[in-house]
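Notes continue from the previous slide.

Worked example: a multi-chain complex. Inputs as given:
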Amino acid sequence: MLTSKRLILAHFWLAFIVFGVALLLGAWQMLVRSPLVPWISNPEWYYRSLTAHGTVMGYAFPTLIAMGFGYAISESALGQPLVGRRWAWLGFGLIVVGAVMALVPVALGLASVLYTFYPPMIGSPFYYIGVVLVVVGSWIWVALMSINLAIWKRANPGKPVPLAMFANVAGSYLWAWTAVGAALELLLQIIPVALELSSTIDAGLARVFFSWTLHAIVYFWLFPTYIAYYTIVPRAIGGKVYSDTMARIAFVLFLVVSMPIGIHHSFMDPEVGAGFKFLHSAFTALVALPTLITVFTICASVEIAARLRGGRGLFGWVTALPWSNPIMLAVAFSFVMLGFGGAGGLINMNYQFDATIHNTQWITGHFHLIFGGAIVIMYFAIAYDLWPHLTGRTLASLRLMRLQLWLWFIGMIVTTFPWHWVGILGMPRRMAYFDYTNPALAVDAFSVILSVIGGFILVVSGILFFVVLLRGQTAPQTDSGPYRFATAVHPPVTVPAALNGYALWVGLMIGLTITNYGYPIAQLALRPGTAVPAVYVGGQR
Amino acid sequence: MSPTPSPSSPQASPRADNWHTRAIGVTVLAFVVSAVVGFVALPLAQPDLKLKDVWDAICSAAGVASRPTAEKPIEPDFKVSSVVLTPDLLNLEDAQSIGRGATLAHQCAICHGPAGISRADSPNLTGQYASVVYKELKDFKTGARVNAVMTPFALVLSEQDMIDIAAYYAYLPRLPSPRADGTPPPRIVANGDPMRGIAPCGACHGELDNKRGSPRIDGQPAQYILSQLQAFASGERRNDISQQMRTIARQMTPSEMEAAARYYSGESR
Ligand SMILES: [Cu+2]
């Protein structure tokens, strides 16, 4: 029962439009620092573009997808119209205003600080206030998800919360809490300096605050993808979810263990004690657990679909899968990329291994493979699956969809594998310029060219994605029926209270944040003499 | 869906408490084990840390700042710059200050020119950043930067004099670019050389960006630019904070120094 179609479509369209722009910027960035063209001779243009690319891809795009998908889930899984639709539009409006407010100074070169802020660099206050507005807009969504669930629970006492909604609300709580780190950094540290109320900043403390956000934000990006794995894929390929309980456990585990591990981004930072680095490293190992549970459960669910379709043998069932179905293709590609990306992640979480690839192109390759690859390819799948229910028109170009997904997969592999490689060779990230005539860098040239080609394959795939959606717009109106989610082999009749609510898990999430972050933050905040002069960017020339 | 015979409320399920104790138990266990390994076992396994006891290990692993040793730090045998460059140093345009500075600057005109445009090979001061003029004067005064000709004039200036002079020169107009024909910058200026740790000059000295404390060098006499680069490279001039300029100049070849000097001065070969 989708009643807020315009609201949901608005979120998805805005998400994909800003994504399309940022995708072009990304390809341009790859080109201008490759050996293929003479250098632009001004690093400022590069960092401007990079800031816009990261801000859109990291904050605006996935947040809008999670919100739009979240509203769709709330209506169709709970079977009740969205309560607070006006508030939802207000949240959307805040995101639009915030995004414009943040990106205008970036375009003017007044905030080339990259999306991770990097104090003591300080840009225009409008940039940071814009980002804060985007986050505030998304917090309205968090509140609405929880209110809608509460209303449903009151009307359905004792019933198990549908899996899609259970996961959706878990994701919203994770976001609410993980955004607090960057919010504290912005409100207490950066914005006062940007407004010139103070001219020094404790950059070490700011980095610790940001790490609070930086790891779990990836899991917030990942939630729509995992929800799609569990609740769209089995239905779309004619199977069933292998275990509803496993799914719930995976989602609540993300709440608990994706938060207290962010200092693995600061292994090379001197301001955090080695003991806390170890603690975060150990908990990072635990975060593999929900992903392994998911890989197992989804493979089992897919096997069920294959066997229902007459698949036989130990591995022979794989051929019985509906490979012409874009959703099947997307999930397979997503898993392959998740596998490689996850393997790379095991390197990053190891203190000693991390030292060799820290701040190299390896890291850029890693997060593009996970986020741009495994996660975003499922965003496409979600759009393909949901679109007919939103527009009332079928998306008929299945061949085009398959081509688009293939190109995205190939493009992402061709982009990121060479990045990993040159990272191992020591090529640093966040550089506007490389002198490939230098013998020490000449070895990188070939791999860099390869990854540029990958980048352009991604652009072609992005264009195809829009072609598919726009062609759908011309199809005749049809009724696609109610939007449904996959059912489990054993649909839950009763669920333990712990897996039907969040109190326990949110409690553990906050508790572990305090144990793992409390001391490092308190120590840096209370210690005098740790602030350094701010460096205003885009100021005097 | 067939109506299920109303399932027992999950809240009332006897297994609920089990979940709580188990989940909290496992989490606490994971925390305690990692903490013991990370804060006690691993630090104690490293003899280099020279830890006295378990408490010492915990403090070290937590990152508690260690007390400085009683030994005195080794002082350099030369004067280092005492100026602290903050973003808000000398940002105000104060008409009175500029006026006083204009009067004081009369004594500087013989060498730096009546309008801050030098006709000898002394540096131009017109349109220079206030923070730079102030810092250099202060460095001359404290002896962090030494020049037989210039130092005597700085020695007699008071703190307020230096602030006023800085305000005055910053207020004067900048020199027009000496390269009206749009000569392309040499490689070392446009790209620097990342492999030798040289950022593009323009990333600090203006045009691309200005980092506080980096003087405008556009339009300075070639001879002056060259001599400063050589002085940084040889260590004769060492008032640059954190060796920002020395690390760069030491890596530059003589021909790169000449190319940069020619480009910035606008003097054709
Ligand atoms: Cu991380």
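Summary box: Chain A has 17 helices and four strands. Strands of chain A lie at 121-122, 200-201, 532-533, 535-536.
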